[in-house]
Amino acid sequence: MTLLLQLLLNALVNASIYSLLAVGFGLVYRSMRFFHIAFGAVYIIASYAVIAGMNISGFPLILSIAAGVLVGALSGVAMDKTVYLPLEKTGATPTILFIASLGIYILIVNLIALLFGNEVRILSRGIEPSLSIGSLIITRMQIVQFLAGWIVIILFWLIIRKNTFMKGIWALGETPTLVRVLGLPYGLMRTVVFALSSAFAGTASLLIALDVGIDPHVGMQALLTGAVAVIVGGVDVYWGWIGGAVILAVVQSMAVWQFSSRWNDLITFGILIVVLLFRPQGLFSPRKRREER
Amino acid sequence: MEKLKIKNISKAINGLKIVDRVTASFLPGRITGLIGPNGAGKTTLFHIITGELRSDTGEINYRGEDITSLPPYRVARKGIGRLFQDVRVFENLTVSENVVSACYDHRVETPWFPFLRKKRWKALERELKEKSDYYIDYVGLMEMKDVPASSLSYGQQKLLAIARLLAGGFSLLLLDEPTAGLNPVMIKKILNILKRIVAEDQGKTIVLVEHDMSVVTEVADWVYFMNEGRIAFFGRTDHVLGDKEVREIYLGL
Amino acid sequence: MNYILHLLIMIEIYLILAYGLNLVVGFGGLLSLCHAVFYGIGAYASTLLMIKTGISFLPAMLMGMAITALFAFLVGIPALRFRGDHFVLVTLGFQMIVFTVLYNWVGLTRGPYGIPEIPRPGVFGYEITSLIGYLILVGVILMVTIIILFILYKSPFGLALKALRDDEMAAEGLGKSPVHTFLYAFIIAGGFASLAGSLYATYVTYIDPTSFTLDESIFLLSVLLVGGTGNRLGPLVGVVFMILLPEALRFLGLPDTVAPNVRQMIYGLTLILLMFLRPQGIAGEYKINHYGKAEN
Questions:
Q1: Domain enclosing residue C180, as ranges
Q2: CATH (residue range B4-251)
Q3: Which of B92, B106, B121 comes nearest C175 by C-beta?
Q4: Which residue ranges form the domains of chain A, and what is each CATH number?
Q5: Which chain C residues are Cβ-neighbours of A90 within 8 angstroms?
Q6: What is the pLDDT of residues C100-122, one digit of tens each?
Q7: Is the pLDDT of residue C295 over 50?
Q8: Is the pLDDT of residue A290 over 60?
């Protein structure tokens, strides 16, 4: 029983990180309607920016983290401005953007591997102090992850509900041409979408890097987690993304309880395929899939 | 006698009735018009007939067979062909390949056919080369035969789509605004082709959705007038177009 | 000289993989990210059959092909309910699931420890051990593959695939069934990938799951995207480019620690540039669709 509760607790912490990834991925997927694989590259950029910064000077950690998230955000925007936007102007379809995104991912991950090596780098120092809640154990880092993640998610939700600009961004995914026709600042909206998406990725990245470290190849895992969460939950529902993330985290923990964590990928993608088969619009999406064609 | 019989077809999307209890018959050997203001449900009706969309109620009968819930490729195999509003040629294929692709029976398009029936395949290729050339010539695209369809002008693509339909040997042709966006010369060309089709083969049924009234009066003897999802009028073309209500709703007169 | 032979053998194996995948990606217009596990299932199935039941190479290879074709059928059915992104995701899911099984079902596949000492192929009583022998063996299978696939490319089946690729609605309107046609293509591609896997396994005589990862599926897809799809020349150009590039880099004196990363960076950059300048790849026929002029 204790083990089960402990695993659930871990799941809630993981869900917070997964939610950040889901929202980060979902923002682009929903607004721009293409599969931004390079999100996986953006994910690692923030942490490696901090690593680079730490090598150069002795910045205090908090400042470095903020700088890392900022660099991550900027890199995402840069990807859009240099590749996605110009391609869209030439009439590129989502497939072309997907392939270009793949190219960006491969390019950046290998550039980083070239510059920093393939080994895992940990940003923190020493063993994490842990807390006991009854018979359950939680580390300080886990508390930070839990709080940081959920606070960001909820704050963000509060903002998008009220703010017209953000509502406009949401509309982008629904009726992109209408947004332009209405004279809304399309370019600015794109920038905001990518900046936010990348900031979320960077935040998640740092929360993990400070805990267990980072290497150039974990970006794909992060991307896939975010993408599966979004699709399982439902592309068109913000809380669906979060719901998807929670489901993934909980089911993975349950799997650890029954089997071992080796089968995580099978579970994650098994869920994806089952959901796509029986409820392709996502578990939390209310209406039926867009009426035929 | 009827080729295509539609009975009580309705379709609501998001609560809005796009097609409302439509009942109609389309007879062979003639061109029947389907006219009405934008949003009247004409294209949706086509989608329902071809199986792209499923109707909420009613049935569709073609030559005595119930085709109501068949998927589009099955409907096509029953002999119902369609010209889309947005043309839809196979862009990366040449004009010739576009037409030939319409000639193949589906049993020939299997992976084992070229191996198990090799001789038949070679013979078929020779036959179809002639057949496709015939239809390409019929629509006057012979010079562009080996050009990729993407290089054709809009009007030429429409002609190609028509050639494809003809080559496909369909007995019922659903034409969705075949003359839209074309210059008068092209339009005349297409209308002549349509008239020729029905004249040469009394077994063919053509249903024509059109906004250009001069086109309708020229080729269609009978029309259905659709408005807000319902069939509002049916009759001989001059009679329907002369009706006061139709003129008010549609022609703004 | 031995090294050159090795390169040629690997090129032959990758050509089998590429020409098969071309049927799905180039002719069908569907991006698949699970080709590596078809490659892997072929490798593992034929290897396990040879080791555990003692049957010889050719029957093992053919049975492996049948098993892989079955898997392709089982994945294809759900995957082909979708197109575009969702299709890719289902194939991606299948890739990850099969990889996880290959890696973790140690009882069957020995997982990360791999399967060593795979028996050399015995063909009509003659055991192949030399590089030249392999070159010929793989070469013959490659020839058969090419003959079969080139006929399919030219056949009504191939044309139907291209029509469905270019405009599915219009093709359906001509009586072509998308699911049936795409499914055949998917199964055939899987079958040939399986052949490549069996050949690979007996060539390197050791296999482990790390040869059949998502990265490998991405690589195979990239080969086609770079070289070009939908015709006969594209896959050849793609394979030669992607396999010889690392050799060229090494030749230019790039140190081995850096070379793999630089090579990948070049692949990535090439993909991006191609999407801008030449979406049909270097030598392909199929230009991945842009939204039509009408919509611009």
A1: 2-214
A2: 3.40.50.300
A3: B106
A4: 2-124+139-278 (1.10.3470)
A5: 276, 290
A6: 999 999 999 999 999 998 988 88
A7: no
A8: no
Does C252 fall in a domain? no
Q: Is it the case that residue C125 has pLDDT exceeding 90?
A: no
Q: Which residues of C touch B114 (CB under 8 A)?
A: 151-152, 154-157
Query: Does residue C84 form part of some domain?
Result: yes
User: Chain A residues with CB inside 8 Å of B54's CB?
Assistant: 292
Q: In C, what residues contact B, Cβ < 8 A?
A: 148, 151-152, 154-157, 159-160, 162-163, 165-167, 169-178, 181, 184-185, 188, 230, 285-287, 289, 292, 294
Q: Is residue C209 part of a domain?
A: yes
DSSP states along chain A: -HHHHHHHHHHHHHHHHHHHHHHHHHHHHHHH-S--TTHHHHHHHHHHHHHHHHHHS---HHHHHHHHHHHHHHHHHHHIIIIIHHHHHTTB-HHHHHHHHHHHHHHHHHHHHHHH-SS-B--S-SPPPEEEETTEEEEHHHHHHHHHHHHHHHHHHHHHHH-HHHHHHHHHHH-HHHHHHTT--HHHHHHHHHHHHHHHHHHHHHHHHTTT-B-TTHHHHHHHHHHHHHHHH-TT-HHHHHHHHHHHHHHHHHHHHHS-GGGHHHHHHHHHHHHHHH-TT-TT--SPSS---
pLDDT, one tens digit per residue, over C258-284 is 888 998 999 999 999 999 998 888 888
pLDDT of residue A58: 65
As for how many domains chain C has, the answer is 1
